[in-house]
Design a protein that fits this description.
Blueprint: E1 3-5, E2 24-28, H1 29-39, H2 47-53, H3 57-60, E3 70-72, H4 82-85, H5 121-140, E4 144-145, H6 181-199, E5 222-225, H7 234-238, E6 243-248, E7 267-273, E8 279-282, E9 296-301, E10 319-322, E11 327-333
Parallel strand pairs: 1-2, 2-3, 3-4
Antiparallel strand pairs: 5-6, 6-7, 7-11, 8-10, 9-11
């Protein structure tokens, strides 16, 4: 049996995120808010986002719980669907018969320039990219991802964020959605991300990161990078930024597999860029005391533009372009042995 809390209620003391005892897991709305705000350009800095992407140790480590205590989500059964999150900035609940007074006003959404559906191809492309960014962020984050059925196919409720009362097409799941090429691509990406997560234990850690060097070579189990390829310093966490690099070491995974052997995996560098224009992200290389392994390959990206220019050679410390207008990308280090459980 799994105990999963939706840890908020009305009244004083009703909000209890992070307060449940061991064995409980919780819907983590702080993850939802931080990820939504980052991709719509509303975060003042990335301090909170760093905690959310790496398992929310500030919420769950103190009570002896593990990263899987955090049920990460971007959308849920109530509120906007993923497609509506990038299509509407205001709720449109008139069909519910309550004068649009029901449902939350705090949607933390961005309509990409136009409220509601549009035939503008540039806006349509940006909205698809934003959906890919949000799905990729969710499925590469440490913790337990929660997907709402239909988000992987671009399901919409027409901006209704409280559709529990709609027993009709508005609230139903249309299984023909993947017939649309754009939605089919979203579904294919979701499948690839789920397969990637399944095959790589570094993306499913059962213990929190230490952030400390694990060996004489100075490699950390977790490291954060700016766009110029340097490790983030304390002032960087307090500065406004639209770009963040997250390095996960596959060499330092706590625990043993079913045969009692140390679990090892590829290492990953997730690059999140929510800026309006492309930029060059300099991949971390072997130089300096905070180095990472440097033979990088690209398992996937959420933009559909030009390929990165970096060669991934061991002596390469140059950057590759990360397409702008809210784009995510990822690269994988293939230098170490990999053991998949």
């Amino acid at each position: 049996m799994k105990l999963i809390a939706e840890p908020w209620d009305v009244g004083n003391g009703g909000y209890q995120v992070g307060a449940f005892p061991p064995l409980w897991t919780e819907w983590n709305d702080r993850y939802r808010d931080a990820v939504r705000d980052f991709w719509r350009g509303a975060l003042p800095d990335v301090r909170d986002l760093g905690y959310r992407l790496s398992g929310s140790s500030d919420l769950y480590a103190w009570g002896g719980r593990r990263p899987y205590a955090s049920v990460n989500f971007v959308t849920a059964h109530d509120g906007f669907t993923l497609r509506d999150l990038v299509t509407y900035e205001r709720k449109h609940n008139e069909a519910n018969g309550e004068g649009n007074r029901d449902g939350t006003h705090d949607n933390r959404s961005w309509n990409c320039g136009t409220e509601g559906e549009t035939d503008d191809p540039a806006i349509g492309s940006l909205r698809l990219r934003q959906q890919r960014n949000l799905l990729t962020t969710l499925l590469l984050s440490t913790g337990v991802p929660m997907l709402v059925a239909g988000d992987e196919m671009g399901r919409t409720q027409g901006g209704n964020n409280n559709a529990y009362c709609q027993d009709n097409e508005l609230g139903w799941l249309d299984w023909s959605l993947p017939d649309d090429p754009g939605r089919a691509g979203l579904l294919a990406l979701t499948r690839r991300l789920l397969a990637l997560r399944h095959h790589h234990p570094v993306l499913r850690r059962r213990a929190f990161f230490s952030g400390r060097a694990q060996g004489a070579d100075g490699l950390r189990d977790l490291a954060w990078f700016t766009a110029d390829g340097t490790e983030m310093t304390e002032p960087d966490w307090y500065a406004p930024t639209a770009t963040l690099g997250l390095y996960l070491s596959g060499r330092d995974i706590p625990g043993r597999d079913a045969r009692g052997e140390q679990i090892t995996d590829d290492s990953f560098l997730a690059v999140l860029h929510a800026g309006p224009r492309p930029l060059d992200f300099r991949l971390p290389g072997p130089r300096g005391p905070r180095r990472t392994n440097s033979s990088w390959t690209r398992p996937g990206r959420t933009s559909q533009g030009r390929r990165a220019r970096s060669t991934g050679r061991r002596d390469d410390h140059g950057g590759g372009p990360v397409d702008g207008a809210a784009t995510g990308a990822g690269v994988r280090d293939r230098t170490g042995q990999r053991r998949v459980t």
